User: What shape does this take?
Amino acid sequence: MSFQNPVFIPGPTNMPEAVRLACYMPTIDHRSPIFGTILHPCLDGVRRVLKSESAHIFIFPSTGTGGWETAMTNTLSAGDKVLAARNGMFSHRWIDMCQRHHLDVQVVETPWGQGIPADKYEEILKADTAHTIKVVLATHNETATGVKSDIAAVRRALDAAGHPAMLFVDGVSSIGSMDFRFDEWGIDVAVTGSQKGFMLPAGLAIVGFSDKAIAAGKTAGLPRTFFDVTDMQKGYNNNAFPYTPPVGLMNGLKLALEMIEAEGLENVFTRHTRIATGVRHAVDAWGLKLCAASPDLYSDSVSAILTPEGFNATDIVTRADNVYGVAFGVGLGEVAGKAFRIGHLGSLTDVMVLSGLATAEMCMVDLGMDIKLGSGVAAAQEYYRTTAKT
Ligand SMILES: *Cc1c(COP(=O)(O)O)cnc(C)c1O
Assistant: This one.
């Protein structure tokens, strides 16, 4: 693997040089007020990226998966009922985590390539007149299939049923790269990590809690220690953590947030949409299809591309790595071998993406697929050329 090439995996994403350098800092006393000058801008910046006025933000030394655990253990008790849709590997893993925590998960099996069926959620919530369902889970962007779900529609389903369940949203591969509205969508817990939209190495779980989710902690019986948000809040009140914080990563997060806000959050989203659209033009030109079943579901942070029947999509990823030193994502779970993924989130330019598309083309031609070199690149070039800022 050549370290000169960008990566096209949907996390960890490419790091801007300045962010990388910000992570690399001398040791400070993490119980001194200096740490507060890193901590508080991080909390405030994340809150703004979530589009929330009042969410309680917590940052743990962990990854997105630890964010899921933070959500569950701080709000629920063993045996509590949770409603979730399984439409890809990440929603599957969240469900699995709930089950291992002895939660009672009602799973809505959903074809991979489809979004969360909000109408089905509504039906189930309406039928739950005793309000036994405590939490509704929603994976905003299924990174395995490149499918974006409509969280506003999930909120409408809860409202239409007049159901008081909390809404937990996995935004690990959407927050910071796709529009996310904590307050407007009535979200109770949002989960993300450092290594996707925030352009950092893995190492931070980042969560937002509503007042209602915080209040649920008073009666939540699941054991929690490391991920206890109450302990964490006490720490924050003294510019500290209950244990040793990953200061360098948080200093990187502070800068990443400044960069996102300097570009403008909406401009960041527009850039992701534009870059993703170019990738989709390339896929079209190749005569291939996305795993996402319809345009309303297309993710702006990752594209899962289906290869023809009988072809092993993983070969493209292996060849890109071995021969060209470029990383793409393999298909996961049900789409293993059937799809490969181009991650296009975080720190990316038109030029970087064109290099990824060119590499994918070389691999596909090398492997005997019926694709014309330059076809996808040309389609993306034409789109980027005609939509570039002048
Ligand atoms: C990456 C990802 C996760 C897992 O995050 P880790 O940081 O690898 O623990 C969870 N959900 C989604 C949607 C993801 O893309």
In short: The mean pLDDT is 97.
